[in-house]
Amino acid sequence: MADTATLHLDDKDYSLPIIVGTEGEKAIDTRRLRASSGYVAYDQGYGNTGSCESEITYLDGEHGVLRHRGYPIEQLATHSDFVETAYLIIYGELPNVAKRKEFGLRLRKHAAIETQMQKILEGFPTSASPMAMLSAMVSALPAYYPDLATNDFEKDLKNFDRAAAVAISKVRSMVAMIYRYTHGLPYVFPKQDLPFCDNFLHMMFSEPYQEYERLPEVSKALNLLLLLHADHEQNCSTSTVRMVGSSAANLFASMSAGICALSGPLHGGANVAVMQMLQSIHDEGDDGTRFIAAAKSGNKSTRLMGFGHAVYRNFDPRAKIIGEACDTVLKRLGIDDPLLHIAKNLEQAALQDDYFISRKLYPNVDFYSGIIMRAIGIPMDMFTTMFAIGRSPGYIANWKEVASNPKGRIYRPRQVYVGATERNYVPIAERP
To answer: Which CATH architecture has domain 71-263+379-404?
Structure first.
């Protein structure tokens, strides 16, 4: 294969290097195109633009493949847990026994939220968006940990292990605290002897005289939910983390920006839309049959949420895993959720009906994640904050790649200007 591509513009040829990834992905390097030709590559939304080289996650949307550091998501979901997968994503290798223990101890050490930060939370109205509160609290972390957030890559990388543990552990605790605050409940402090997910459930749902009853199936389902969201290549919020980090902004500031991007309904809020759709179908007394028929007829008011994906053109591998877990956790909790029955009917229709198969409208991870969270007791307005807990390792790993790259440059996309051409200023009295 040639190591360059030739672009013919204005009767002149330009030689552009070809980059080949370890999985055979090919890219044309256009970084010097504007300098040599005056042209920029136009790609609205960067849907066909490689913004970086990364060793973290490989995604093949055509074949439904997702791997973290080379490990298939199916294997991680079966054999690993969220904390171990987080370590893998951040540090590049699965930990041995000693490193796994050390990492877990760091997470436990940094679980508590400082009293002064509680006052920040209590400055918000209880009706405020949980994601707005979360992003604000994360953006405040540099004020409490200035030695971890100097905005100097060299200094911040020296303290990276502690900063990463603070970020993952405190985002988890902040979400629990936001839930308690918005529901008028007293805060519950973390316990040093509890694993990551059990500690979260304890902080969320324990009462002063009645601790949360630990159920292995629930903890396992939550572990799986977070693991499946741990990273997903260069999505909107992860790209935001990298862009902000490229300015040498610290880890916490970059993560706060990512959380803001995640708050959008087209990204982190997708599972909320799925639950609203399922509830609407149920309220209409439909088992999904009429809804499917309306969707196939082209009725624009009937939008099938949780199907299809911006990247996957095949079945989302995470959806297969989480769909099975959904059945297990609901049976263990003794929940007969009518929304799950509707979801199953919609899924079967999508997998068997030519209308959906031809359009590659397969269920994605958002389709079942909301049902699991609802079963655990997490309210719908907290769904996206749960996504933020899960995605924290991916944010951290991507920030680290940016910070560790000595040849990195600040992200600065170009544009194609389509506004007014040059014109002269007109005094206000002379304007029509």
So the answer is: Orthogonal Bundle (1.10)
